[in-house]
């Protein structure tokens, strides 16, 4: 509008553009404030803390630090590589932008560059591999004399926990879950526990997110690990391997309690007559409570 056929820069700057720029800025600031408010008010302090751990839940065992530092370290390494790549991309976009219609000089080989982009990925993989192995070893390390041993049985579609402690002179007590009443795993705080994982039917996976730990439960072999719970409380656990129709209901809770409460709980199980071991398979009749589903599996 109002152009006299000579669209000069001066004319345009004096025209409508000058009027709309502050309006645009106000709109941007307004949107930013609204989004920021929504984002901040939508986050509880627990969520904010979880953001600081880059998504990890609060760790509740002595093995979580190894996983946490590997997780954070991998993100930092990825960010460093990312920033370098973004910087190089920006650099070439600006430095070698199109200046004329003439095609640029074509280059076929650049040996130093080719050596660099062959070696750099190996260096990155090497560093990540080293730390993964080292932290993995810390997580899977086992002591020769754990204070407690639990045989975890994953069966379609719940869990049985066999405590190998001696209770009132009895060797071992157990508890099991049903589809309607998921199992509970009681553990004493600050005492080391050795786990044996076994399955009488298909592959399951024992996963307690707060322990940053997951291990497959495989029929015909015993997978082992050890950890020491470091925080009292109730934590969620689940099966992390699609194991059949009711896989989604293969959940359990971990109750980390004081030693006195742990002992009292084991005595309670013994008083109910749940002594010995319930391991499934030929022993499956000792795992009660699967009701109608038991016949269908
Ligand atoms: Cu399962």
Automatic annotation (TrEMBL):
GO terms for cellular component: plasma membrane. It is a multi-pass membrane protein. One of its GO terms (molecular function) is copper ion binding. Keywords: Copper, Electron transport, Membrane, Metal-binding, Respiratory chain, Translocase, Transmembrane, Transmembrane helix, Transport. GO terms for biological process: ATP synthesis coupled electron transport. It catalyses: 4 Fe(II)-[cytochrome c] + O2 + 8 H(+)(in) = 4 Fe(III)-[cytochrome c] + 2 H2O + 4 H(+)(out). Residues 48-143 form the Cytochrome oxidase subunit II transmembrane region profile domain. The keyword Transmembrane helix applies. Residues 145-268 form the Cytochrome oxidase subunit II copper A binding domain. Residues 273-286 have a biased composition (Low complexity). InterPro entries: CcO_II, CcO_II-like_C, Copper_CuA, Cupredoxin, Cyt_c_oxidase_su2, Cyt_c_oxidase_su2_TM_dom, Cyt_c_oxidase_su2_TM_sf. Its EC number is 7.1.1.9. Belongs to the cytochrome c oxidase subunit 2 family. This is Cytochrome c oxidase subunit 2. The lineage of its organism: Bacteria, Bacillati, Actinomycetota, Actinomycetes, Propionibacteriales.
């Amino acid at each position: 509008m109002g152009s006299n056929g000579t669209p000069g820069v001066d004319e345009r700057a004096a025209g409508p553009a000058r009027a709309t720029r502050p309006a645009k800025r106000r709109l941007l600031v307004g949107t930013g404030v609204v989004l920021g408010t929504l984002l901040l008010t939508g986050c509880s302090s627990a969520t904010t803390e979880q953001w600081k751990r880059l998504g990890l839940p609060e760790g509740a065992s002595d093995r979580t630090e190894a996983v946490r530092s590997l997780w954070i370290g991998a993100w930092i390494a990825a960010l460093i590589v990312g920033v370098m790549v973004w910087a190089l991309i920006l650099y070439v976009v600006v430095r070698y932008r199109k200046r004329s219609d003439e095609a640029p000089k074509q280059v076929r080989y650049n040996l130093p560059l080719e050596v660099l982009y062959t070696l750099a990925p190996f260096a990155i993989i090497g560093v990540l591999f080293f730390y993964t192995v080292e932290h993995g070893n810390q997580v899977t390390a086992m002591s020769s004399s754990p204070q407690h041993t639990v045989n975890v049985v994953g069966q379609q579609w719940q869990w049985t926990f066999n405590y190998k402690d001696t209770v009132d002179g009895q060797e071992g007590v157990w508890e099991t879950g049903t589809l309607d009443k998921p199992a509970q795993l009681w553990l004493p705080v600050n005492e080391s526990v050795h786990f044996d994982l076994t399955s009488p039917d298909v592959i399951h996976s024992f996963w307690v997110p707060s322990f940053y730990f997951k291990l497959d439960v495989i029929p015909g072999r015993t997978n082992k690990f050890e950890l020491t719970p470091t925080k009292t409380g109730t934590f969620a656990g689940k099966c992390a391997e699609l194991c059949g129709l009711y896989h989604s209901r293969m959940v359990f809770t971990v109750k980390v309690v004081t030693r006195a409460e742990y002992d009292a709980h084991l005595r309670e199980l013994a008083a109910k007559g749940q002594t010995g071991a319930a391991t499934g398979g030929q022993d499956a009749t000792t795992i009660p409570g699967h009701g109608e589903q038991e016949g269908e599996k």
